[in-house]
Q: What sequence folds into this?
């Protein structure tokens, strides 16, 4: 009963279902620019490095000047394991990937993130 | 792939991080405004517990995990719009 109460205290179900407003489509004109390119649309290593670093630099608790491709999220940037989860989730969104839990826990440094994303066939 | 230099995580820690990930994933399915709100509530709750709960208090951490999983299930329902914060007495 106490558990049920605790759950109910935290959840609000709206009486009316409101139309979702925030679900904006990500598809841009890029798709049409890639006409007839089937082989060269994989990301280059440089591009992956640049984008990974910029995601990490944009993380609120990170000092951008400390971010290098070899930096370890927790040891070098002073983040905790919850921040680490947030960074990996931000990388998922940036590269439109879904990283399974088993892989996500291993990604604790920029170079591991870069390797993983570079080798991922669906990264874009 | 270089060897990981991070601290090894216990099973319980992995479950907590996995739950956190689950909440952040569920929040992505909500509207932009609700998502921000959910993320800030969830992040504050996890962070508060990580500071205040004794890391050896396994029974309590397991209780929090069970409670969190229930809340996540509710949040994943398309009818659930957002979370609200209430103080537990």
A:
């Amino acid at each position: 009963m106490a558990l049920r109460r605790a759950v109910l205290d935290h959840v609000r179900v709206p009486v009316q279902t409101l139309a979702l407003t925030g679900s904006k489509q990500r598809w841009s004109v890029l798709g049409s620019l890639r006409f007839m390119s089937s082989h060269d649309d994989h990301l280059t290593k440089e591009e992956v490095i640049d984008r990974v670093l910029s995601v990490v630099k944009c993380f609120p608790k990170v000092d951008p000047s400390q971010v290098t491709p070899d930096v370890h999220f927790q040891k070098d940037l002073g983040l905790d394991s919850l921040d680490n989860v947030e960074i990996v989730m931000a990388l998922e969104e940036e590269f439109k990937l879904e990283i399974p839990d088993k892989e996500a826990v291993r990604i604790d440094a920029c170079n591991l993130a870069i390797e993983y994303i570079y080798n991922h066939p669906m990264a874009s | 792939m270089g060897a990981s230099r991070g601290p090894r995580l216990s099973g319980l820690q992995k479950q907590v991080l996995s739950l956190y990930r689950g909440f952040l994933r569920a929040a992505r399915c909500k509207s932009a405004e609700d998502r921000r709100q959910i993320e800030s509530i969830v992040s504050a709750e996890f962070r508060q517990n990580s500071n205040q709960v004794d890391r050896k208090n396994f029974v309590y951490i397991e209780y929090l995990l069970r409670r969190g999983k229930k809340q996540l299930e509710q949040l994943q329902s398309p009818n659930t719009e957002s979370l609200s914060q209430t103080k537990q007495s």
About this structure: Chain A touches chain B through 36 residues (CB under 8 Å).
